Every structure is written in structure tokens, then in C-alpha cells.
Amino acid sequence: MIAGKWLLGIAPALAATAAFAAQPASGGAPQAAERIAACEGEKFVFAAGEPRPTRITLCSDKGATTDGLVRMLESAAAKIEQLDKLSPDRKAALVAQIKGKIIEVRARNAFIPLPSTVLPPEIGSKPEYTQLPPLPPPVPLGVAATPSASPPVVLSKPKLTLTCTRPIEMRGDGPCATFATDTLLTIRADEALPAGTSLRFLRKGDQRAEVALPPMRVGQSRRISLPMELCSRVVRTSIEIHVVRSAGASSLGQVVDRHGPYQLRC
Known about the structure:
CATH topology of the largest domain: Immunoglobulin-like
CATH architecture of the largest domain: Sandwich
Structural class: alpha+beta
Strand order of the largest sheet: 5-11-10-7-8
Shape: globular
Radius of gyration: 24 Å
Number of strands: 11
Order of helices and strands: EHHEEHHEEEEEEEE
Number of helices: 4
Number of domains: 2
CATH class of the largest domain: Mainly Beta
Strand content: 25-35%
Distance between the termini: 35 Å
Helix content: 10-25%
Oligomer: single chain
């Protein structure tokens, strides 16, 4: 069982038939969208394809554990692979984004607990030095001590170009200045982009959504819509876009680049 609910939006005209995983057969996309909007757990948004992106929104149960979130994401990826209405390219891009999010969720609890302090037993008012073990021999000169832990890996900033366009303006991509709900964000890889890179969207400093980017070749582009969480319960606000990279499943994501702030009209 998925620990949460999800909504698939292929396009506005198909929303009523695509929300089957969030509502019973008698329900519809508006009811599913309302349930997602009222999400009390953790929300994940994935989008792929152009010019009308397919959007997947997942909402976990309130207080879901890391294992519960992973099970929900894995189940969603399996269901997406079985959808006949999606093209192979869109399926592959969405599944790649979800698998990247699974790596990030698992990395949240990738830490080693420190042992609790062990206090020596009381031995009276006067210490009995004869009971202490002998001191270790001195370290010879010229022998360097082995560090207890490796220094953290500092990841480099990927070479990405972000441009924006609005379908209503009927013109090509240009520099991102102000955003609207229908703004499409294009990400172009100016170098080979490996897995483990995502865009984190913040509203007035608070993280609202994160979109994982699939691996891309030099010159390859991906176009996504703005996450709908940015316009939740506001009319006008400011947003930032952070580029986040991860060295692997056992490392936490690092913010390696920032874009903005931008004005957003909802």
C-alpha cells in the first residue's frame, strides 16, 4: 500500500481521467487536486515533457517515516512505468526523477550515532591512581596521526543555463526576470550532467518544492513548469531557485548555485 496519495496531470484536458490513483472511480481530477492541495504530509512534484508537461504530485501521510516515503516513491515509479498513455521518453524522465528523490530521502538519515559518554565509577574522595591503566607509548617524531574522518567532499557548480518563456507571449526562451503560473523554465546542460542534480524552489527563503533533473548530455535541455506549491495561498511573492547536487546515496545534497530572487505573480 502506498503511504500517501498521488495525482497525475498529463494536461488540463486529460486531468479528469489521469487522477485515477488519488480518487475512486466515481471521483474526478478536481477532488484529487483538492486532496493534494490539502496535503498534511510531505509533498513531491515531478514534471517531464514539453510543450505540455506531464506532472506527478505525490503526498505522503502525515508523519510518514523515511521507509514509508521510500515505499510511496517506489510504488509511484512502478505505476508510472505501467501507464500506457505516457510516451517512453516521459516515463523514463519521470521515473529517473523519482529514483533521484528516493536517493535524497534515504540520505536524510545517513548518519552515524555518536556513543554516549561513559563516566568512570566513583572510587572515593581520593583518586586511586594505581588503578588507572598505563599511558600509551609516545608517538615517534615524523609519524603523522591518521585522521579520524575524511573531510567532506565539496561538489562543484554544474554549468547550467536557465531561461524562461510564457506560451501566451508566443516567443522563444529568454532571461528569467519575473515569473507567472504559466511560465516554463528551460534548463540547458552546458556540460555533461550526471544523476544527483536537482532544482530546489524557495518562497521567501522557505523550501516549497524540489525537482530532480535526469542525466543530460552537453547541449541537451529540459523544460519544466513551476511547482504549484509556490503559489499556494498567495497572490504575489518572491522566489529563489537553488541548484542542489549529491555525491551519491550516502551523501547529503549540497547547494552549489543560487538564482534569483524573482518576482512571482500567481
